[in-house]
Amino acid sequence: MEPKHIAFIMDGNGRWATAHGLGRKDGYAAGLDALKRVLAACVKHKVEVVSVYAFSTENLARPDDEIAAIMNVVKSFNLSYDGDMKIIYMGDIDALDDDVADSVRLVEDRTAGNSQITLNIALNYGAQDDISRACLLSYDHNDFTPKGFEKRLSTAGLPPLDALVRTGGEKRLSNFMLYECAYSELFFLDKMWPDMDGDDVERIFAEFEKRNRKFGK
Ligand code: IPE
Ligand code: IPE
Ligand code: MG
What we know:
Radius of gyration: 17 Å
Order of helices and strands: EHHEHEHEHHEEH
Number of helices: 7
Strand order of the largest sheet: 3-4-2-1-5-6
Oligomer: single chain
Helix content: 40-55%
Bound molecules: 3-methylbut-3-enyl trihydrogen diphosphate, magnesium ion
């Protein structure tokens, strides 16, 4: 079986840039190039949804100039995107600067009718935040059941998360898709995100095929 929904924690951009004698900020543009290579490989494998962690709620504690560099990459991607993917975002977008939030709405509207693959970008996202928001919403709607709760997660309507990949060498989830990864296959790669290419994705898919998914049975 191939994964229908795969997620990437795109970690290691800053360290990659430093190791190449660049400023940390330059790592994010290189990270976008890597994302394009990874997405091309996922399209080839007919993946339905790719979720990526671009910026966590905790990343707001980073220096202002680093946050601005990340948001600039996101904004210019949104404003210039004219491909076939359907692009959606999850996270607290309204809390970001207006120009970034506007670019998110724009690309979501512009790509809403596309059907090639869905790219779900987590921006100013935290799983704990998402879970507590879904709890409150389902309680407010007097629908505080497991289904009512799932309906109010940002990932409602997406296929179950089959696989989760983290680059950059750390073995932790850093508040990403904590509810959704209940039965996901986990992959931890030592390489930095900007070094990712199509062959890495091929290797992940090959290993995914070999894993024995039991779902507790
Ligand atoms: C991950 O790359 C992307 C974001 C947090 C936006 P990092 O910026 O965390 O890169 P490293 O882990 O410091 O190398
Ligand atoms: C996770 O990476 C967030 C993103 C990749 C966007 P971090 O670099 O923020 O995570 P920690 O701080 O190493 O746990
Ligand atoms: Mg990091």
